[in-house]
Structure formats: C-alpha cells, structure tokens
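Record filed here:
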Amino acid sequence: MTNLPEQIIIHVDMDAFYASVEIRDNPALKGKPLIIGSLPEERGVVATCSYEARKYGIYSAMNIKEAYRLCPNGIYMHPNFDKYKTVSAQLHKIWDSYASVAEAIALDEVYLDVTQKAETFDGARKIAKLIKQRTKDELGLTCSVGVAYSKTAAKIASEEKKPDGYFEIPTAKDFVDLIIDRDVRVLYSVGKMTAQKLYSSGIHTVRDIQEKKETVTKLLGKQGKWLTELAFGTDNHKVVQYRPQDAKSISREVTFQKDVKNYNLLKDVLFLLALCVENRAKKYDLYGNGVTLKITYSNMKGITRSKITSHCNTAFEIYKEALYLMKKIEKSPIRLIGVGIYNLSNSKNHQLTLDDFMTENKDEQDKELKSMFNALQKKYNLKFAENLNKLYRSDILYKTIEYMRKHSN
C-alpha cells in the first residue's frame, strides 16, 4: 500500500478577476488599463484592475483619486457584483469537483485538499492542469495555481508565476529555500502593523525571523510563535469548508460621496443598513449578542461603538440599538457609517432569557417596522417595497442612499 503524503493542497487564485470578466465580455477592453471600483469623480477605492493598469502603479484598495492621477487615460468602471457572483459559482463548481474538501475564501479564490484524490504530487499536478484548462475553456478566464504540502506554501506558490501561472512547493525545505531572504510580509499573516513592529526590532526577512525567533515570540506573543513556525516551513492547518453561518459578525456600511451633517438622514440610512444586516442574519438563522456602530468622520477619524444585546437579528432591534449608540457620538460631518451584529449564535443554541419575556410583542415590532418603512419611502419618494431584495445588492443600496442624500432637507 502506497503511503500518501500528509497533505497535498492546491490554491487557486483568479487573475484580476473583476477586470478579466469585463474584458472577456467586452474584448474592446483588452490591452487597456481598466480600473474597477469607484469612478474618478467619486469617493472610493480601486477594487481591482487589469495588469495593464498595474504598470502605472495602481493596486487594489488604492484611493481612486490617486489611481486617476497615475493613470488619467484609464478606463474606469463600477463593479457588477451580480455578474461576478454568477461567474464565481461556475468557477467553484469546477474547482470543488477535484477536492475532498474545498475552502472558498473569496469569490475568486479557493483552497482544495486533494490528498486523497491526487495521492501523489504527480496526481496533484494533473489536477492543477485540468483546473487551469477547464477554467479557460469553459469560462474564458485564466487562473494561477499553486500546489504544495501546506496552505501557506500553496498560496505563495500560486502567486509565484502570476498571471496564468503554475508553481509547486513539495516540501518544507523547498518552501524555506524559496522565501528565506524575502521580506517578512511574504508570510500572509504579516500585515503592515506587524511588519513595522518587526522592522523596528531589526527583523526584515524570513531569515531574520529564524535567527531571532525568541525576539519575535517575545514581541508578538502567540502570533510570533506561529510566525517562527512558518519561517521554518511548519504549517499543519487543514482545509476547512467555509460556511456563512460560521461568520463572527455581519455588517453593512456605506461611504457618502459628500460628508453628511444631517443626522435625520443618518438615522434613515441606519435603518436601511439594519434591514440589510437582518436579511443576511435571517438567511443563515443567526442571532447577534452585540450591535456595533462604525463611523468615519470627514477628517478620516474612525470610531467604533458597541453594545451588548441578547440574540438580536431583526432590523427593528438592530436599528434601535445602533440609534442608541449614535446619540452618544460626536456630532461632526460624517463620511462613512456602518452597522453590524457580532458574537453570533445559531437559533438552535438559543436559550430563552429574561430579556425574551421583557421584549415587547413581536407583532407590535412588525407594525412599527412597517410604519417606519412606509414613512421612509414617502419621505424620499422611493418605491422599492415591491422588490426589497434589490435593496440588499450593494450597488442598489449605494444608489438609493446617494439619492436620499441628494434629496434630504
């Protein structure tokens, strides 16, 4: 009997996903600097961009104004998330068929455990080539694929030959040999803040982490211990299928195109955001044991306020608690507002508490919610009650709130 490798992991990552889908559907965009995100005259950031745009120094999450300064002749487009979600479902259907366990971590990205199906790295190589070929033949898109002994190594492998790349890291030694003299940020758990802490202690490369592992552990605690293990190629994390009901929080937020001083408008926006949070929570039968309010002021100062609650998942409860938090914040012009619930639990694990018996009658809540909804529509001359599901889409929600902002008194 053949001894199977302990793990064989494939990481698949699409190449400039949103931009590639738009170019596929409109070949006239091919070869041009395409930037998906906000438009130059709007507030916002770059969601993704074509490789031609990246030559100008543009990258995901860059402020759209800076992107336009770097590339004024680029083609700027809003994202079409409905289209991308449809394509994503088609992609994951192809990819998942080759794995015993698939862990989707984004619309365009997945970890696949192919240990049993591939049995060897030769078998995994064949699966990877099939994934790349089918992705191109069936959907007209390219992806980069990494095959490795661990999740961390597989992710780094998929990034090694982008775009349309393929790379293997069979062993921990191969992994260490590849990254030993690279910046610490090559390790995906090292963000900007963590990197700065390491730099300040003279730790710049993976080799430095190896040589100063006691310093790293002392500096970063549990995370430091994990980083030192990674620096030596140790990563035993398993591919775990993601389930939406395993989320730790649910939230929605919106950035206004112009700062908002009108707190009556902000209350109305909070109500719509609460409706969106309720929709997702109820879809997966989840309750929050806390409500958060997120605010970014015009000067870019950001604050988050929270309040412990008892198993709340209705728009009425979320809105009521968020409104309570908003009454206590500084009344200055606001750039961004968001609301969410956290410490999620499933209704199956929900036990009745004293708060359940003290809560006002559910029918009364429903009546008040309906009254608020109708009043909001009348106030802004909105007509989305017939098809509320459209409001939950990011683009429709954003357009609705911007319309309200422009027509608020």
Summary: The chain has four domains: 9-15+82-175, 17-80, 184-231, 248-406. The radius of gyration is 24 Å. The mean pLDDT is 90. DSSP finds 17 helices and 13 strands in the chain.
